[in-house]
Specification:
With about 220 residues, the chain is an alpha/beta fold. About 25% of the residues lie in helices and about 35% in strands. The protein has 2 domains: about 5-120, Response regulator (Rossmann fold, 3-Layer(aba) Sandwich); about 130-220, Thrombin, subunit H. It has helices at about 15-25, 35-45, 65-70, 85-95, 110-120, and strands at about 5-10, 30-35, 50-55, 75-80, 100-105, 130-140, 155-165, 165-170, 180-185, 200-210, 215-220. The protein is elongated and about 60 Å long.
Length: about 220
């Protein structure tokens, strides 16, 4: 089986090192460059399935590279890495529907979600398409433990970072535990992603991992 190829274009060597190490562990072939010129040279040398692009490279703002990728590698998926909000919408007209946004700072769970959504490169494809998002939510803990009852567990804050019709991935400061029941309250809106969440969804925590700002948890919908 031919391994999917990923190009990383970022002048931050630590980010390049971390991404290349993670891609190798997941079975991808990757190559990192630090300038737009080197990225253009590499894209001319061979095609890539996925490009992780820092939009603020030292020799370019990334727009030229986006256009070249669109012209020479139209099948390549583009992931913009940026610390500026709103970059995805501004650049979508150049890159088309192949673009996703990875907001800095990020952790590797963000990268995993994008790889599953954008590349389809994992050994087992998801049953439901997953959407990367940033949706603030309120969380209520159902049937808290006796030691938790002293706290207000009906107005906890969280953020949905990806979602499909079967469940979601959530970040929160509260130390969730596997098997716990939650009610997730999403904001009102007509966004197609929001419609994937049942109103006042009841969920069960399937897995939990520590993250930079608390925990990241996988939830499945029960209603």
């Amino acid at each position: 089986m031919v391994r999917k190829k990923i190009l990383v274009a970022d002048d931050d060597r630590l980010i390049c090192w971390a991404l290349e190490k993670e891609f190798a562990a997941l079975g991808f072939s990757s190559h990192a460059v630090e300038t737009c010129a080197d990225a253009l040279s590499e894209l001319g040398r061979q095609p890539y399935d996925l490009v992780f692009l820092d939009i603020d490279l030292p020799d370019s703002n990334g727009i030229e590279l986006l256009r070249v990728i669109g012209g020479t590698s139209p099948e390549a998926k583009i992931v913009i890495m940026s610390g500026k909000t709103g970059e995805g919408n501004r650049l979508r007209g150049v890159a088309g529907n192949s673009l996703q946004l990875l907001e800095k700072p990020f952790d590797l769970s963000d990268v995993h979600g994008i790889l599953k959504s954008a590349s389809g490169g994992y050994p087992q494809k998801r049953k439901h398409p997953r959407h990367i998002c940033r949706i603030p939510v309120q969380i209520s803990i159902l049937e808290p433990l006796p030691e938790e009852s002293q706290y207000d567990l009906h107005n906890l804050s969280g953020r949905v970072v990806d979602i499909d019709s079967g469940g979601l991935r959530l970040r929160t400061e509260y130390p969730l535990r596997v098997g716990q029941g939650l009610r997730v309250h999403v904001p009102a809106g007509n966004d197609s992603v929001l419609r994937l969440v049942p109103k006042k969804a009841v969920c069960q925590v399937v897995w939990v991992t520590p993250s930079a700002d608390g925990v990241t948890a996988g939830l499945k919908f029960l209603t």
